[in-house]
Amino acid sequence: MNTSYIELAKKYIKKHYNEEIKEIERLETGLCHYVYDISFYERDNLVIRIASQESKNLIASGVYWLKYLSNLELPIPDLYHYNLEIDQPYMIISKLQGRDLAYVYDSLTGSEKEKLAREIVDIQTTISLLQPNDFFGYANKYHDETLQENTSWKQVIYDSIMKSKKLINQNNIFDSKYSDLLLAKLGKFDLYFSKIKPKAFLDDLTTKNVLLHQGKFTGIVDIDQVCFGDKIFHLALTKMALLAQESDTDYIDFMIEEYKLDKEELEILNFYVTVCCLGFMSELGQKFNKDEVISCHPDKINLLENIFLKHHNSTNIMKTDMMRYGDSCNDFYQDNLITEIIRLVKQGKEASVICAKAHKDMPFAYLAIKLYREKKFRNFKRDRVYHIGRIWDKRLLRAIKNKSTMGQLAERSSWVTNEFNTLETLYYLGVNVPKPLAYTEDAVIMEFLGSEDESSLLLKDTHLSLEQAKKVYDKIMEFIKIMLRNNIVHGDLSHYNILYHKNEPYIIDFPQAVNPAINPYAYDLLLRDVENICRYFSKYNIQSNPHLITQKMWSRAR
Fold first, then answer.
1. H or E segment at 444?
2. Which sequence positions are flagged as catalytic?
């Protein structure tokens, strides 16, 4: 630990606060500033950020952007004091509760990751509404003349690659071929880059600078610069950070879903991941503001090389998923169910959905393949609730509890078969669901609701007339009754998993469906389903009492 900076921190704090410091702790965040958490006996904690010799400009820009963004009602720290005129400038800010996302990510549930993704996307959307800048790149302020050479977003990406290449050549850990591969591929995206405008986004809201406490988002910190260019780059940097710590990337899938990225954007995301990976490579063997050189263990080197090559060799995220689930798709090819993969329809929650061209002998032109994720593939907070009555073998239940390989396979297979069987039952009962055709241990293939170029809209994205809304509401309630009479409760029903196809509602996503005859939580799950539907249709002024509706349904079905 750097004692001189601790003494500086104490000196600066005492200049503004005539109180005894209880404790001072170095926060190991970032590669630029020296950051300390200051606790007192009778005052809330404060944070002081002190610039190193190399980061003076960033302290000044941090002060600028905190002031500039303070009127946007963002969850950012309050700026109390600063001095930019001294050799080692500083700022003193309020302490936000929580830890960086990196430290708590693996303990978050799927729904917590999904909620966080929405909150961060909302923040980035707010930031994007700021006035565009004169130039592209990482701005210390508006009209930042240091960026005047950045007349395109491509220039920013090129400079990033070249900066990483320089450091890689210095640390002599990685082959320079990685930077050369990216430079050779850069021209492929000229048309895409030409469409990017210098719009604002926060590039460093990744697995750091995003704080959570007890699974809930509490705020963002360390806004030293605002980047002007392509917001998808922020997504790539976050994904790279998760891959580097060997975590799942469910959080990224939720953000992809929120941003509604198209095929071209998914491909550029993959390219950006390799650019960010090169940046991670360049940091190994460097010291920056750390007390020790950043470790370059052989396992870390291999991990980064594998991440780079996997994403560089994949033209888009869909193909990456196809490699992970190749066996299932091969089965569908061999069984003459599909002839061609068309496009990625959705990434999010427990699975990816892909549109495929059906074999000529199929009754449909296109089929949907639902591919369950390789790990942490489900998004249900209380998995045990849904499993009751589904898996009877005690050894399998024990294996699932212990998270063994056998248990993980059994659990995934349970979700898949449950979805297929439920769809099959409901289809023949006349409930509007996609017709299921076949399944493997990690995929279900079914009728695709939509066309080659366009999927049917989710109910949440549909604008109905009042007359249409009443018909759709009545239809959904009738489907819930039919399901209940046949011992099925959806368990996760909302406007997020109902499609509006040919003026009719179609219910999807049944892996968590439960049998009310044997599951003691079925009533609560049914009530939640009904509440979700009633809440959504209340915006059409359809008045309802979900508790009364649920009680009547339950009593008549029992």
1. strand 443-447
2. 492, 509
